[in-house]
Amino acid sequence: MRAWRALLRRRELLDRRILGGRIYVGSALWALTAFGFGLLVWGVGGFVHRDGVDPHWLLLTLAASSSLMAFRRTHPGLVLLLSTGVTAVDAVLGPSTMVVFNYGDAFYAVCAWGRRRLAYGTLAAVVVGGVAVTAVMVYLLVIGEIDYPLVVLQMIGVYVLVFGSPVTSGVTVREYRNRMALERERTQQVRRMAELDRRNAIADERGRVARELHDVIANHLSAIAVQSTAALSMREPDPERVRRILTVVRDSSLHGLSEMREMIRVLRDADDTPDLEAVTPRLADADRLYAAAREAGLEVRVERRGTPRPLPGPTDAAAYRVLQESLTNALRYAGPKRVEVEVEFVPRRRGARLRLTARNRVAPAAAGGAGRADPVWAAEHGAGAGLTGMRERVDLLGGVFAAGPAPEDPGEWRVCAEFPLPEDDDAAGPEPAARTAGRVGAAAEDEEAT
């Protein structure tokens, strides 16, 4: 690990720019190395002697070509152009080995760091040049200007070594670097998508927990609030009525505490996604809702239509919560305290679905006057957290939800929810006995504790 970190630090040092960003540290070191090695090669006679030419002139072309290597990454096209001129002068004076090597490195730099069009144009030019050199050498061999085929192979090998190999290496490095950049970008996109999915999952889970908490707390606390208000409004003591009120308050507290405990247990025991439906009552438990609402002073009329059938777990739980919230709102705002509930199982021939409807008159204080629906009242009740929760539950199941004043009677508040049902009854399994047993057991424990 330490070796890798040291290597990374060295790489960062070599990629650092100096002299106002014109030169990379790595390129400057490469230029110095090329010049030093070129001096060594010149010292051992690594150049072609020409009559009447002082070998010291070759040191100038060596210094020029090595200096150009310092700009190989920042200005590769210009370096190749100037290197071509320096190499031509060196060929007239010598040539020398290191200048030719630096010229090949200029081709590598263009293909590795130059613009795409310049890089692949250079590759095409080298390929065309290789074909031309091969054709000329073969032609000279055929007409007898070259005596041995080995000479032809040697010249082709030199061309490949000086031009072909650097260009091929540069293009390979360029493509590898492009693939790595694409992979990094793809990895970043995957991370962004994963983070977005995580945030959406958290938001969805928070919304689900918020709906459950609201439905559990609001229903029971509303009953407690209504009964407490009734007790406080009594002008003369009535022990029997006070006893009935306290009984309703006690039962609502016990039921709310029981459901809250079950929800907390599920949230604590869940590994990833808590199964809140495991502690949510079902539509079959709606009679308990009706009884609690009646005890709280609300007149509840229930009408059932159609043939009941097994419901999917999410639909069953959502239907119960819609009824619970509708009764809660009726208990708070209805005037007189009366609500009509319709539970209809629409048959398959008409499109299998479950339709829930709750109707109640609006108290004059809330409606802005007897029989008159005030816009402020409608907006206030239409933006409540309970209505939002019901709408979200129905929408998540692909159903249709509507709540507001009835078109034909603005003084009536109507809640209507439709849930699509599967065509096959086997798709909706019955409620596990453990869920009902758990809820009944928790309620019994709270009853004993009091």
Automatic annotation (TrEMBL):
UniProt region (Disordered), positions on chain: 421-450
Residue spans of biased composition, Low complexity class: 429-443
InterPro entries registered for this protein in UniProt: HATPase_C_sf, Sensor_HK_TwoCompSys, Sig_transdc_His_kin_sub3_dim/P
Gene Ontology MF term list: ATP binding; phosphorelay sensor kinase activity; protein dimerization activity
EC number per UniProt: 2.7.13.3
Cellular-component GO terms for this entry: membrane
Organism domain of life: Bacteria
Domain Signal transduction histidine kinase subgroup 3 dimerisation and phosphoacceptor: 205-271
Segments passing through the bilayer: 21-43, 55-71, 78-98, 118-141, 148-167
Top-level class of the enzyme under EC nomenclature: transferase
Keywords linked to the UniProt accession: ATP-binding, Kinase, Membrane, Nucleotide-binding, Phosphoprotein, Transferase, Transmembrane, Transmembrane helix, Two-component regulatory system
Known catalytic reactions: ATP + protein L-histidine = ADP + protein N-phospho-L-histidine
Matching PANTHER family: NITRATE/NITRITE SENSOR PROTEIN NARX-RELATED, NITRATE_NITRITE SENSOR PROTEIN NARQ
This protein's name: histidine kinase
